[in-house]
Design a protein that fits this description.
The protein is an alpha/beta fold. The protein contains five helices and eleven strands; from the N terminus they run ββββαββαβαββαβαβ. Strands 9-8-7-6-10-11 form a six-stranded parallel sheet, sandwiched between helices. A three-stranded antiparallel sheet has the order 4-1-5, with helices on one face. The protein has a two-stranded antiparallel sheet with strand order 2-3.
């Protein structure tokens, strides 16, 4: 959906943070910055049969090289209960197209990092719970630490409920207790692409930081998957 953020003064970092999150913000000074009015787009994290509420995963973008923080994410992150904002949509620009005789799909691979999980989650839940798709689906999700694994319980339950869905996560800054994959999603994806049997009937869905998406798309094309079978949803600050 498109959010209309009015011009004004916004906090550079969150106030009243829960204690367990303070460590992530210790390097950022408390303050404000002024900004012009802007529009920002954020993807829905839920599908139409899941809830009457609209859910978004918005990561408060920190300042880059001392310059102001992300306008949209910091403004929305600072909203209080009872505040209002104007939004339009939703716009269906990132979704799984119907499968038919002209669109033969055997496998769908979803690759995301950070808050980029939002649209991937909504598509996965829609396909498996609403449309009861029998296509093989794999989600490769990257985060920093265990605390950053969004929707962990829901995705693990989805994997148990659907034999055609596989959930794989990887961490770049795991604790010593972590026993799963480590490193970026590119590392995990490389192993999946090596074992990919049918690249011409595989679709890829991407959402996450730009650098990750650029590198991943190169890997996918080199693996023989046509560009028209790669779908992506870009971040905005």
């Amino acid at each position: 959906m498109q959010f209309n953020v009015p011009a004004g003064i916004t906090d550079s970092r969150p106030n009243n943070l829960p204690e367990k999150f303070e460590k992530f913000w210790s390097a950022y000074e408390t303050g404000t910055f002024s900004h012009e009015s802007v529009t920002r787009h954020y993807s829905l994290a839920n599908f139409d049969q899941e809830s009457d509420e609209l859910t978004f995963n918005i990561r408060w973008q920190t300042s880059e090289n001392g310059i102001r923080a992300g306008i949209g994410s910091s403004y929305l992150g600072a909203l209080q209960v009872g505040d209002t904002i104007t939004a339009t949509g939703p716009y269906s620009e990132f979704y799984a197209p119907p499968v038919n005789k002209d669109n033969k799909v055997a496998h769908r691979i979803f690759i995301g990092a950070g808050s980029g999980l939002a649209p991937l989650k909504s598509i996965l839940f829609e396909q498996l719970k609403k449309h009861r798709s029998t296509i093989d689906m794999t989600l490769i999700y990257g985060a920093r630490s265990e605390d950053d694994l969004l929707y962990l319980d829901e995705l693990q339950l989805l994997e148990k409920q659907h034999q055609n869905f596989t959930y794989v996560n990887t961490l770049t800054r795991p604790s010593e207790q972590w026993q799963g994959h480590t490193g970026y999603v590119q590392n995990v994806l490389a192993r999946h692409l090596e074992q990919l049997a049918e690249p011409l009937t595989t679709e890829i869905y991407l959402c996450g930081p730009t650098a990750m998406m650029v590198e991943v798309e190169k890997m996918i094309v080199n693996a023989g998957i046509p560009k028209e079978q790669i779908f992506s949803d870009k971040f905005s600050r």
